[in-house]
Amino acid sequence: MAKSDSQFSCAHSFSRHLPEKIVTNDDLSQRMDTSDEWITQRAGIKERRWVEAPMTTSDLGVQAARQTLQLCENKPVDAIIAATLSPDYNFPGIGVQLQHKLGLPHVPAFDLRNQCSGFLYGLEMADAFIRAGTYSRILLVGAEVHSTGLDVSTRGRDIAVLFGDGAGSCIVEAQTEESLNYTDSFTVIDSELHSDGEFVKELWCENVGSAHWPVRVDAEMVAEGRIFPQMNGRKVFEHAVKRMAEVSLSLLTKHGLSANDVAYVVPHQANLRINQMVGKQLKIAPEKVWNTIEKYGNTTAATIPIGMSHLVEEQSLEKDSFVLSCAFGSGFTWGAGLLRKC
Fold it and tell me: Is residue 232 flagged as an active site residue?
């Protein structure tokens, strides 16, 4: 059921929570054969945040969510959508933990496993629920703890240096022009999502999984490092640049827009060079590509809401300004979302 002409989905109250512990490139060089220069040139990362025990993914998500709820005066939500590739446990996901820790009894909680594209998949899902009239105020959270699942040694450095921990959140709510009263509100104009499972093994964490029997993990898998993420960096880089630019242009063209109409692009934060190349293909001025990777690294499903929270804090966006977001990640999955400042 389509929403009425006067009602629309509004994303607002973007918030973030990062662990206190800062891990610099120099810190990592004490644990593996790497350097600040190597990491900076390769990925544009200078530091990242890593949790300390007993902090978990759901704990980070709860902290971000509480800030979001406070910004909207703790108005009740009627659904939770949680995106993560690093839940506290193999199952269940973190959605029910957010529901319980936030004290939201019996609110339905959905978990998404779309990795770096998770927040955009969640945004489209939330928008669809609101368009259908199923829910009216949805808490959308992206949260990750990578640090406890990385091979922090020279063997695993190609991936270990890239990832950080963090969480971001927002509310996606049914609104009308008359009811709108949030200063950081964005109309959810549209989104476009894709996937291609042909490339599953180019960026994946093989174990622990049900594909292995009679046991899901054994000493050999651990010794070989097959319990840690693996990536074909060259192929992922090439596909990320191509697909993020492609889907962004497709979404802009669909709505009769060009790069000149976009105030900012808030891309997924996997690699600074990827974002720079996507910006060039979109013909977006470098200063309009909003990056946080230098101080946070790749926080997968959390990167876009973290970036949006910084954007609304640090920039004064005019009414009707367009913000474009795009992401690419494991699966492969990719997508773009278009927002307009209310």
Answer: no
Q: How crowded is residue 301: how many other Cβ atoms within 10 Å of its Cβ?
A: 34
Question: Does 5 score more than 70 pLDDT?
Answer: no
H/E element holding 337? strand 333-341
User: Would the pTM of this model clear 0.90, i.e. be above it?
Assistant: yes
> Is 260 part of the annotated catalytic residue set?
no
Is-catalytic flag, 268? yes
Q: What is the chain's mean pLDDT, rounded?
A: 95
Catalytic residue among 17, 268, 275, 291: 268
> Which residue is it, tokens 């594909």?
211
User: What pLDDT was estimated at residue 1?
Assistant: 29
Catalytic residue among 298, 310, 326, 342: 298
Percent above pLDDT 90 for the chain: 92
Q: Kindly name the residue from 12, 17, 25, 116 that is annotated as catalytic.
A: 116
Domain annotation for the chain: domains and CATH numbers? 7-176 (3.40.47.10), 186-341 (3.40.47.10)
List the one residue out of 111, 113, 142 whose CA is nearest residue 329. Answer: 113
